[in-house]
Write a structure and sequence with these properties.
Mean pLDDT: 81
Structural class: mainly alpha
Largest sheet: 3 strands, antiparallel
Shape: globular
Strand content: under 5%
Oligomer: single chain
Number of strands: 3
Low-confidence stretches: 1-43, 139-153, 518-524
Strand order of the largest sheet: 1-2-3
Number of helices: 18
Distance between the termini: 41 Å
Length: about 525
């Protein structure tokens, strides 16, 4: 068959420089007991969980190697240039119309059938490996891995529980079709959908109680980032649907708790991750925020106060943008180090020199950006510019933009405004009126006033306005850092999305006006 389309020299060069030979699971080592150099005191019998993980890692290694071998044979690409991140069409040159035939070949190799519907979601090599691993039963070891990782001292416990919850979801496609907004009713079919996913809901909430960190390295089985984030998106959808069902039954406290669970899930997702994790986390947060905004006028003082305090506590533990960039740099440096290792193994002097130069240039650039990111957004000044002309470095550097930082700060501003609005609701319900100043809420409705992350200092802006809906104006100064006295970002050319805040928008981020979008949009 003709799966191959001509590969340009630039693409071949990119494949060479971008080779990242990730493995799904560490290499299987010889049993310590079989080594003559080990004493009896050094030999430790494996627990069932360790034995299960060891066997799973070995199987994952075999699946990964076999997939790469098949792709290498079919596409005529050296296996060392095939990584988990390689896209089938973009990097390996598979013609889109030939994808079904490639999936048939892979299915025959592993004695499984890959449907046309499933094959459409398999974009990268990592996704193919993860899909085959699940079909071959390797996903079953997640129960073992999760059971071994549920101790609070294990930072990956939440990740394993979330992944197990996703694996247990019933009628996932039906769940994705549910429209969740403030006006959509909860149907009988949706009630049944919730009941069928009761086990998944319980497991998600167990995950919320234990530490989370995105699994990295060869010691953990983890689906590809796209699969993992789609899974968490499904769980967020389930949590919000659960909240809507509770609200329909008059259980406002339970509904708010479910919406906050979705926000916490999104915040968890960013821990230990990179920029792609950050955006996925914003999606989960945005879904929970959307329903919280719609619920705020129905909360009594106690429920509103507890919600504001929980959201504030979540914000206090937020992953900083500098930490996100550290995760991004770890992944990118792995790419560059692999380039150096590959060139060294092939004894290509020019390739070695270029790889070393790329590492030096990239390190200097990212260190400068991260130094900026540790400062307040308002003090950023002129962002560092990449000096290198090396293609791979220029590609990697595209993530470290001011626009990406603005998105991170924008999400923080959204939560700051929502926390304040809910606290104002608690104060109004308890005292019969709004405060003249946000300071009056401290110690009653909330412990401290949320800071404006776009401003050089100080809390979000507030003033009483009797003619305004709700009786007050609340806002952040927005990406431009200027106090426009509550004049909202307004872009009529965007139609229904005219109040969406872009990274370079002029105007303030006003509660109730610029808080309808899930999160900020990156442009540029």
């Amino acid at each position: 068959m003709n799966l191959i389309k001509p590969l340009s020299k630039p693409l071949l060069a990119a494949l060479f420089l971008g080779a990242l030979n990730l493995t799904f699971g560490r290499q299987v080592h010889a049993d310590p007991a079989s080594s003559p150099s080990k004493t009896a005191s050094q030999t430790k019998k494996k627990t069932p969980a360790e034995a299960g993980r060891h066997a799973a890692q070995a199987q994952l290694n075999r699946i990964s190697a076999k997939v790469k071998r098949v792709l290498s044979d079919e596409m005529g690409v050296e296996s060392q240039f095939i990584s988990a991140r390689s896209s089938l069409v973009g990097d390996l040159g598979v013609e889109p119309e030939a994808l079904p035939e490639l999936m048939i070949i892979l299915g025959e190799e592993f004695d499984i059938e890959i449907s046309t519907k499933d094959s459409k979601s398999l974009v990268t090599v990592g996704q193919v490996i993860s899909y085959i691993a699940r079909r071959k039963g390797v996903a079953g070891v997640l129960a073992v891995l999760g059971a071994a990782a549920t101790k609070p001292s294990t930072p990956f416990a939440g990740a394993h529980l979330y992944l197990q919850a996703s694996e247990s979801l019933v009628n996932r496609e039906q769940l994705r079709k549910v429209v969740l907004n403030d006006s959509s009713p909860v149907t009988l079919a949706q009630q049944r959908l919730l009941s069928s996913n009761d086990a998944a809901l319980k497991m998600v909430r167990q995950g919320l109680l234990v530490p989370y960190r995105e699994p990295q390295g060869p010691d953990f089985f983890s689906p590809s980032p796209v699969e993992r984030f789609e899974a968490f998106g499904d769980l967020s959808q389930l949590l919000v649907l659960d909240g809507k069902a509770k609200a329909a039954r008059g259980n406002r406290a339970g509904a708010v708790s479910s919406y906050l669970d979705s926000i916490q899930l999104g915040m968890d997702l960013m821990r230990g991750g990179a920029v792609v994790s950050m955006h996925a986390g914003f999606g989960c947060q945005g879904l929970g925020r959307q329903l919280l905004w719609a619920s705020k006028d129905h909360l009594d003082a106690k429920v509103a106060q507890e919600a504001a305090r929980r959201l504030q506590a979540l914000e206090d533990k937020r992953v900083t943008f500098a930490e996100i960039l550290e995760g991004e740099k770890r992944l990118d440096m792995a790419d560059l180090q692999e380039s150096l290792a590959t060139a060294t193994a092939q004894k290509e002097r020019e390739g070695i020199r270029e790889a070393r130069r790329a590492i030096a240039d990239f390190t200097k650039f990212t260190d400068a950006v991260m130094a900026k990111a540790r400062q307040p957004y308002a003090a950023r000044g002129v962002m560092p510019q990449l000096q290198s002309g090396i293609g791979q470095v220029k590609m990697l550097a595209a993530t470290y933009k001011e626009s990406t930082w603005a998105v991170a700060v924008g999400d923080q501003a959204q939560n700051a405004l929502l926390t304040t609005v809910i606290a104002l609701r608690a104060y109004e319900q308890e005292h019969g009126g709004l405060p003249e100043s946000l300071v009056q809420m401290v110690g009653t409705s909330i412990d401290k006033i949320p800071l404006d992350p776009f401003a050089s200092s100080g809390p979000v802006r507030y003033r009483r306005e009797s003619k305004r809906k709700g009786g007050y104006l609340l806002y952040s100064v927005g990406p431009d850092g200027k106090d426009n006295q509550g004049k909202p970002v307004d872009q009529p050319g965007y139609g229904r999305g005219r109040y969406t805040v872009l990274w370079n928008s002029i105007g303030d981020v006003v509660a109730g006006t610029n808080t309808k979008a899930n999160y900020f949009v990156v442009v540029g």
